[in-house]
Amino acid sequence: MAINFDKALGIHPYALQARVQRSEILAGNLANVDTPGYLARDYDFKSVLINLETQLNQSTGGRLPELEMHSLYRVPFQASKDGNTAELGIEQAKFNNNAMNFQSSLTFLNMRIQGLQKVIDGR
């Protein structure tokens, strides 16, 4: 009996990819925290995962889901005079939170792969 890795791993590889892309956006926000007129962006990660899960449930053989991530502009908690909406503390917190969630997803995916390895080895 063949193992379907897409079904076995589920949404987790795509979640990792989405976390990487979100890290890039958040890093850009951090890099531009002092740039006048810069508009901070982010992803609605929950809606990205819901979209991916829907695609995975509807997919029929061989068609991989597409990671559709559309960045949104963030409304600042405290407006700045120069029009920059990136706030250092907020961006750092979001980046750190995303990094921790990435690590959690990676750990979970690693455990799934180790479980599959045990099945393949017959343990």
UniProtKB/TrEMBL annotation:
It is found in: Bacterial flagellum basal body. Residues 15-38 form the Flagellar basal body rod protein N-terminal domain. One of its GO terms (cellular component) is bacterial-type flagellum basal body, rod. Its main location: other. Keywords: Bacterial flagellum, Cell projection, Cilium, Flagellum. GO terms for biological process: bacterial-type flagellum-dependent cell motility. The basal body constitutes a major portion of the flagellar organelle and consists of a number of rings mounted on a central rod. Structural component of flagellum, the bacterial motility apparatus. Part of the rod structure of flagellar basal body. Belongs to the flagella basal body rod proteins family. This is Flagellar basal body rod protein FlgB. The lineage of its organism: Bacteria, Pseudomonadati, Pseudomonadota, Gammaproteobacteria, Alteromonadales.
